[in-house]
Amino acid sequence: MSDARGGRAALVVGAGILISRVVGLLRNTAFAYYFGSSSASDAYSAAFRIPNAVRNLLGEGTLSAAFVPVYSRLLLRDDPGAAKALANAVLGLLLVTVSALTLIGIAVAPVLTGVLAPGFDSATQELTTRLIRVLFPMTGLMVLSGWCLGIQNSHRRFFWSYASAALWSIAQIALLLVAGRSAPDAMTLAYWLAWATLGGAVLQIGAQMPEVLRLVGSIRPTLDRTADGVAQTLRNVLPVVTALGVVQISSFIDLQIASYLPAGAATNISYANTLALLPVSLFGVSVAAAALPEFARDQGALALDALRERLRGGWQRILFYIVPSAVVFITLGDYCIGLLYRAGRFGAGEQQAVHWILAAYAIGLVSFGSVKLLGSAYYALQDYRTPLRASMVSIVVSTVVSVSLAVPLRSRPVAAAAIALGSALGSYVNLAILSRGLRQRLGPLYTPAMWQGTRRILMASLIAGAVAVALRLAQQHWFPSMHPRVSAVPVLAGFGISYVVAAWFMGSAEAARWMRRPARSVGT
């Protein structure tokens, strides 16, 4: 895959993710309007996180890392029969596994609530348990969706596999708009929303199935562990699931800490996390997802220096978008939050609290996005131990920082931001371990030219930040009572335009593509 093809593939993935994420943000906007930051919203956030962890363990994350490289090599070998047999066998094994886990999850829902959200009061814990029992069947549906995504990505069909997630959010938005005002209380609305969330998962799968059937043909799940590639996939699964399990443990620890903070803390973390992960998904995940099938195809066919060059190109593309996003979230995060959430039950106090959390997450954006790409390289190289070790070390750092800061500050609004800061610092430890291991295998990853390019990205981001702050001060002086949903638009637009122009002036090829002008030649 040439760098141009990789850029186009990443663009297609990014477009699909953009659609799903924008609709997801609209879902969060509706959620914030009707729930604000309350005990009912905390219960829903906690209940969703628990079955969602199983989905993350066995869904698209595991399948992308363990299944896609093997399946892609069978396609490269021009053996569609073996590829189809592998796909059906993996699907059958997944369905059996998630069915058993779903039944267990429903049965032990009260125990899960008590372990993972011990700080909730009794009414909030009871609602959380009810919601878990509704949402846990979603696990199996979303794992099936992850299997569909793996099939499509392996065939280089990237757009709809990610864009279809918008239907999942649309089902929830529809429920909130139709029933939000008629619900007798927030707890009842949360229960209704859980059923809409489950229905949205069905819609997402239904939207992907036509293309999957065109690619694979008839789907007949089997338990054939002798099919070509099944043994290798299963060998890959254990370390991947373990590594992802460590990440889920980190999120559960965050939930446990947040449950002891004032009501609404868990919800505020969810609001900020969704926004912080938007650029990571659009640019980090998109580049990594587009690169993984090609990394897998190239092993044994191309020299490792080709892999290194693709990593370099992908990394610079990620940083071009991630660095300015971090600057925006730190300096203008309250405008971003006000634009999305400021209405109904979500007021100025919630806006400020979420901004603190978002700014803390923003510190780790560079590492969050970079880890996605470097992790894909390890999976393509069939090395699952290094990402696992990196995740384990990072969770220790994250937990120590979060507990050390959040517990002493637990009565203050900034306490939840300490949890986000722990995640950010832990992610940099993860990145350091991954990059060191790849340097030992591939040689230097970051060239002097890349460092120069990164400095230009940072300089352009700071220039754009200064322009945006000036616009903000002028706006606050002349229009002090303007609603955030109005005031945020020109300020954020000013940042974006200033950044692209400044980056182009400094010689960025990525900025030149946005401006549809030739890249400027700038001496080092």
Question: Mind explaining what this structure looks like?
Answer:
The chain has 524 residues and is mainly α. The chain folds into 2 domains: 3-446, no CATH class; 448-524, no CATH class. The protein is built from 20 helices and no strands. The chain has helices spanning 3-35, 39-58, 60-76, 80-107, 109-116, 122-135, 138-154, 159-163, 165-179, 186-216, 230-259, 265-298, 304-341, 348-363, 365-380, 385-406, 415-442, 448-478, 484-505, 509-515. Helix 3 packs parallel to helix 7. The longest helix is centred in the middle third of the chain and has 38 residues, at 304-341. It is globular and about 70 Å long. The two termini are 29 Å apart.
SSE blueprint and pairings:
Blueprint: H1 3-35, H2 39-58, H3 60-76, H4 80-107, H5 109-116, H6 122-135, H7 138-154, H8 159-163, H9 165-179, H10 186-216, H11 230-259, H12 265-298, H13 304-341, H14 348-363, H15 365-380, H16 385-406, H17 415-442, H18 448-478, H19 484-505, H20 509-515
Helix pairs in contact: 1-9, 1-12, 1-13, 2-3, 2-6, 2-7, 2-10, 2-11, 2-12, 3-4, 3-7, 3-11, 3-12, 4-7, 5-6, 6-10, 7-10, 9-10, 11-16, 11-17, 12-13, 12-14, 12-15, 12-17, 13-14, 13-15, 13-18, 13-19, 14-17, 15-17, 16-17, 18-19, 19-20
**Biggest β-sheet strands, sense, barrel:** none
Approximate shape: globular
Mean pLDDT: 83
- How many H/I helices? 20
Poorly predicted runs: none
| Class by SSE composition | mainly alpha
Euclidean distance between termini CA atoms:
29 Å
- The ordered string of helix (H) and strand (E) elements is HHHHHHHHHHHHHHHHHHHH
Helix content: over 70%
